[in-house]
Amino acid sequence: MSDLLQVKNLKTGFQTENGFLPVVHGISFHVNQGEIVGLVGESGSGKSVTSLSIMRLFHDTRGKIADGEILYKGENLLTFPEKKMTKYRGKELSMIFQEPMTALNPVLTIGKQMRETIMLHLGMSKKEAHQYAIEKLKLVGIPRAEQVMEDYPHQLSGGMRQRVIIAMQISCNPSLLIADEPTTALDVTIQAQILKLMEEIQEKTNMGILLITHDLGVVAEICDRVIVMYAGRIVEEASAVDLFENPKHPYTKGLMESAPKIGSKKDRLNSITGTVPNPNNMPKGCKFAPRCPVAMPICHEKEPELMADGNHSARCWLLDEEVKKKEEMLNA
Amino acid sequence: MWQYLVKRLVSLIPLLLVVSFIVFMFIHIIPGDPARLLAGKEATAEEVEMARVSLGLDKPLYEQYFIYLKDLLTGNMGYSVKSGAPVSQLIGDRIMPTLGLTFLSIIWALVVGILIGVVSAVFRNKWPDHLGMFTAVSGISLPNFWVGLVLIQLFSVQLGMFPTGGAEGWSSYIMPSFALGAGIMAMIARFTRSSLVESMKQDYIRMGRAKGLGSRQIIFGHALKNSLIPVVTVAGLQFGFLLGGSVVVETVFSFPGLGTLLIDSIQFRDYPVVQAEILLFACQFIVVNMIIDVVYSYLNPKIRYE
């Protein structure tokens, strides 16, 4: 398996009146061909900014990539002129957004919006693109696809719209699909259908998928590997199986405990107290320390590095043998 | 689409009836004896009585209204007190120049306004934007009669390029339509700019970029059609006012249109003409509104399917 996407030391933030405000603090990860990688975190953890950085979609915003490399099939996307990047978007790397209700242009037919991409990237005529688009709509399970081509977005349900968007974004056979909370805005039953659809498509096309979500249930459902983000940093990375069996970071554990479980007799769900720290006012040491139930003095002083144990790594002082020993001695 | 159009047309009928009734009542509501008003100031008592009978003013009000409606439908709008000519003929002579003037004004205002708006939005907060918005603010702030007078002074008196007034040939339309359209152009430019800036922030624009569309396709293929919805509303309303509101500009340029006819008629208390013009302006407003609705439904599919 080769690295399809490799993000190295990515630093992204926003240009504000008080200067540059970093949101993503030098993260590194990769996505292999044929792999579904989950990027998990709360709101404000920097996961969407990460995805927008990969697509370089900061037009008309104050977003700015300050440092790092984003290697796609070995080429650094950040060095591309905008024109070349435009050619890659939708063709090589594609993206699905959270809100299917607003991601389609309300005044253009589905057909027009489908054909547009196909004609642009695959050089088809309008007629060919039309037929091709119908095939793609059928592929994502849209009944009476011919009719839907003539419809306007408001005539379709949320689930149907998300299917249309998926059809649109995979129509040019991209190697990498970034899905930013693709099921968040949908009903639970529709969520499951969409996830299944993405899994099927992935199997058929062998594309790499970076799935951004705050929902560990979604991760458990389809991801091969998981990256947990907190406050713009990666705090844990492991295979999905490993992560669920043996979460190492207190934040990951907290996330898992806060998800409802069937058969649990508890009246109330666990929650992680507090909120993600404001980028303007980050704590000094480990960014999770103020909310961490097992924080030690060192956690408030110094930020831990990402510590790897085989393919499972986490950013926590508890994993540092020396720190652990010292702590045990203090407690004894 | 046709269904929608027919529905809209049918809904106009009650509106037109109400308008015609109000206009009909106009002559009865203003103080004084309608027969005397219509016979003219110098008429003798006998002439007033003759006018009352010949105009049917001795009949009950509802009967008068039906006669008025019937006359309207056959194109009979009464006779001018001043010249004795049929009102329909007076209006007929003046309507084409005014229509020509308003259409010219609205067309250049739309084309230039949208263009300035798009350029300003695309180069937001850069010099083309500042220049565009300076032009727009000037257009809104400068009163059209003043613009008209300056144009006459500059291009007619000093440079002799265009006639000072009248409606002889196309050159006499240029300055009045410029003066008339400047404010509307400015308003359209501002609306297009803010609307386009707003559209560019929408999710479907980011989606379009994620699909690999270039800036040109994003702006003209996706954002502009959405942005034009509010612009059409503004332009349409302005157009409605233009039809009645060219009075000032027509007067400045002594332009032989409906505006100057209205001023003359009011000064002479030529009530049948005034009455007919009011009715005409009201109908124009209604028709323009209807056209806006149709354009609107073309731009916004949600309306079409409701």
Question: Mind explaining what this structure looks like?
Answer:
- The complex is a heterodimer of chains A (332) and B (306).
- Chain A has 332 residues and is an alpha/beta fold.
- Chain A has 2 domains: 3-92 and 174-331, Rossmann fold (3-Layer(aba) Sandwich), CATH 3.40.50; 104-173.
- Chain A contains 13 helices and 12 strands.
- Chain A has helices spanning 47-55, 82-88, 100-103, 110-122, 126-139, 145-150, 158-170, 188-205, 216-222, 240-245, 250-257, 297-301, 321-331; strands at residues 3-16, 19-32, 36-40, 63-72, 75-76, 93-96, 176-180, 208-213, 225-230, 233-239, 307-309, 312-314.
- Chain A has an 8-stranded mixed sheet with strand order 6-7-8-3-9-10-12-11, with helices on both faces. In chain A, strands 2-1-4-5 form a 4-stranded antiparallel sheet, with helices on one face.
- In chain A, a hairpin with a 2-residue loop joins strand 1 and strand 2 (19-32).
- In chain A, helix 4 packs across helix 5.
- The model of chain A has no long low-confidence stretch (mean pLDDT 89).
- Chain B is an all-alpha fold and 306 residues long.
- Chain B has 2 domains: 9-73, no CATH class; 87-304, MetI-like (MetI-like fold).
- In chain B, helix 7 packs across helix 8.
- The N and C termini of chain B lie close together (11 Å).
- The A-B interface holds A 55, 57, 59-60, 83, 86-91, 94-95, 97, 99, 102-108, 116-117, 120-121, 152, 154-155, 165, 168-169 and B 200-214, 217, 221-222, 225-226, 299-302, 305.
- Chain B: Part of the ABC transporter complex GsiABCD involved in glutathione import. Probably responsible for the translocation of the substrate across the membrane.
- Chain B: InterPro entries: BPD_transp_1_N (IPR045621), MetI-like (IPR000515), MetI-like_sf (IPR035906).
- Chain B: It comes from Neobacillus kokaensis.
- Chain B: It is found in: Cell membrane.
- Chain B: This is Glutathione transport system permease protein GsiC.
- Chain A: Keywords: ATP-binding, Cell membrane, Membrane, Nucleotide-binding, Transport.
